[in-house]
Amino acid sequence: MVRTRTQTNQNPQEPALANVVAMLQQQLLQQQEEMNRLREQIARLNQMPRANEIPPQDNPAPPVVPKYQRKRVLCASFALKKDARHWWITVQMRRNVAAMSWQDFVAEFKTMYYNNEILAAQQDEFNSLKQGSMTVLEAIKKFEQLGRLCPELIPNEKEKVRRMMKMFRTDIAKQVSAGSSPPTLVSDCISRVIRAEYWINQDKEVRAQIFKAKKGPN
User: Fold this and answer.
1) What own/partner pairs with CB < 8 Å and gap ≥ 24 does 88-97 have?
2) Nearest-CA neighbor of 196 among 170, 218, 217?
3) pLDDT tens figures, 60-105
4) Keywords, A to Z (predicted)?
5) Long-range pairs for 121-126 at CB < 8 Å and ≥24 separation?
6) Which H or E element spans position 125?
């Protein structure tokens, strides 16, 4: 007698696989829409006058200021990561963004994220930045974040090292700047403060153990 088995049950993984495929297709569509929006923005940007472009003599136009372009990119790279979605929703609610030019977008963006009050607050925070209870690496990360928002405050390597040394705790700064060759490069400064912090922490641990041994058991 020959026995045959008819497979009527579907693989239980097939519905899950179909859901994954559908989700991937939806993500691809969203990515394609985002790419189309980016292409439109790039096309508008390419229509703007370039920083080093010589305008026609019969219709001269003022060149785009390179410093402004740099600041715009710097500010957008940070601010847009946080609450740009909510900001853009509010813009969509009060105006037709489909007809918005790049200049209009820049004006909206500057009003929200790049006004004089925000710039002044960022500069004040950078000027008063201290390591405090942060580790050296945490303080350096904060320093770099604020420094990218206030590039005019650190125009060269020497000034960046000076401000960075001023930020660190006194015990670390003294150990790094002691001797006849204080750091003059940012990379050298960072490596030396990391080593200084390590040995200071090691010394504190040794002192704590000695104090505990002298005190004895409770």
Assistant:
1) none
2) 170
3) 554 443 455 445 444 544 455 557 767 777 877 888 877 777 677 7
4) Coiled coil
5) 122/146, 122/149, 122/150, 123/150, 123/153, 126/150, 126/153
6) helix 116-127
